[in-house]
Predict the structure.
Amino acid sequence: MTALSRANHMNSREKAYFVIGVAGSSGSGKTTLASKLVADCTAIGITGQIFSLDSYYRPLDHISFEERNARNYDHPDSIDSALAVSQLRELCVGKAIQQPIYDFKLHTRRKEFVSCIPTQMIVVEGLYALYFKELLDLCDFKIFVSTDIVTAMLRRGQIMFCYFHFAASRELTLAEMDGRSLPVKLRDGAAKLFSPYR
C-alpha cells in the first residue's frame, strides 16, 4: 500500500494523524516529494503539513560567527532531535506548537516562531528524518529518496548558483555565506551516515 493510500484510510484508525518520514541526501528531491504528498492529500480532503528538520538546527548564539561558520551542519549532532521529537509528539496528540525558525545566514535560531496546528497528515522531511530512533518510532510510513551522486550534485549546484547570485547581488562576502564544500557534504552525508538505514 502506498503512502497516499494509507493516509487515505487514516479516518478508520484510532488516531487522527498519519506520519510519513522522508529522508535522502542533499539534492535528492525529498522536499519536492514531501510537497507533492501534502498537495495530493489536500486535493482529496486530507489536511497535511511538512515538518521540516531544517527548523531544528541547534541554536549557536553562545559561540562566535566564525566558529558557527566552521561547523559541520551536515552531521546529525547539529539537529536538536529532542525538540523535534517533542514537538512532533505534540502535533500527534492534537496540540499546536511554536516551531522555531532557523537563520541559515547567521547559523542560529531567530527570536520569532511559526505557529503550527495539528493536521491529519504530517510529513517529516530532512536529511536525518529517518536517522533518530525516536522519530522513526513516530513514523507510520518511511521513504528514503535515493538519487545518484551526479544528479544530486547537479541539482544542488543549481541551488548553489542561485544562492551565490543572490549573495553577489547584495555584495555579501564569502565569510557571510555558507562556504561548505558540496562534494564533501554529499559524500559524508550519503555514504557515511545514510547507508545504515537505506
